[in-house]
């Protein structure tokens, strides 16, 4: 079986979310936006799919890099195909990003799963058949009764735990361009309000502004230790490994990283070797797919660390389920005014339905486990 065609279908759908000028997601008025369906198909009609951002699967990228590697190839040789694409990155002038690599790799895994009649999470490890999710909030905002005040965070966290069943919660606090942000003291107040609201037994994590100074970060980290937080992630520029070595040696609190730092599993290995973190971060869209995420997990395992997966969706869920050394699946981003459990129009159900006890159960369906509404996409495709 060989790959015959790689295509991208751009479509429109309605969303109630907006991105601010710094790229953080918040609730917003209903508006029309665009998504893309990447399809990798074999000559016998077997096809793998993934939903991606149109910019990551543009026709120019498919023509220049993806089709020359994939067309005519055996999809089961995924590691070889990943390497061939990866090697294009250096000479691509920055066009072939890790997100492009990820989109292609996820569609390839979906194809492999469908071809073999097996779920991807089992093919790549199959350690957990269910995984606890943590409720991951959106960043702070200036919306009345949204996530504007520490008390808003406390109220929302209490709802997440007592009404929705989450067994752990992570706060994203206020970041520019929200007026007054960033402010470590406000961050601390939000964390204290959440601890007060959920009690001492619920694990809590913090993902604050990413450009704090060493001193602000240390001050906040010491307060989080007092509040019994499980981890803090990305409080400083991640390119400065020395800053994270310094931070980790000055705090008992777990530091999780790197999340947004380039370099895939190679960077994660450097962080582990240099003692810059206590837990390793990966995420399929950050490191170029499921394959490199599994390598990050093996690096973490070799250093006796957990590997905590960044972000939501079928690919990240498959990694969480595949590996032994992880704690949670990140479910979000959540906000009092957003119904996370309602699928977008292009899906028949969300990828990560969660039960009342806070578990996401893995499905026994072939492929990645996304339930894509192909009729909707066809009816709403952009010419
Ligand atoms: O800045 C944001 O909106 C969040 O930090 C976001 O990137 C989120 O995905 C994250 O970092 N989760 O851990
Ligand atoms: Mg993060």
Brief write-up:
With 383 residues, the protein is an alpha/beta fold. It has 13 helices and 14 strands.
Give an account of the 3D structure.
By secondary structure, the chain is α/β, with parallel strands linked by helices. The protein has 13 helices and 14 strands. The model has no long low-confidence stretch (mean pLDDT 98). The strands form 3 sheets. Strands 4, 5, 6, 7, 8, 9, 10, 11 and 13 form a 9-stranded mixed sheet that branches. Strands 1-2-3 form a 3-stranded antiparallel sheet. Strands 12-14 form a two-stranded antiparallel sheet. The protein binds ligand LLH and magnesium ion.
From the structure above, extract its key features.
383 residues, alpha/beta, 9-stranded mixed sheet, 13 helices, binds ligand LLH
List the helices and strands and how they pair.
Elements: E1 3-19, E2 25-42, E3 47-52, H1 59-70, H2 78-90, H3 98-116, H4 120-123, E4 130-137, H5 150-162, E5 169-172, H6 184-198, E6 204-207, H7 214-226, E7 231-233, H8 241-250, E8 254-257, H9 264-273, E9 279-282, H10 284-287, H11 290-302, E10 307-309, H12 314-322, E11 329-334, E12 347-349, E13 359-361, E14 371-372, H13 374-379
Bound molecules: ligand LLH and magnesium ion.
Magnesium ion is lined by residues 207, 233-234, 259, 310.
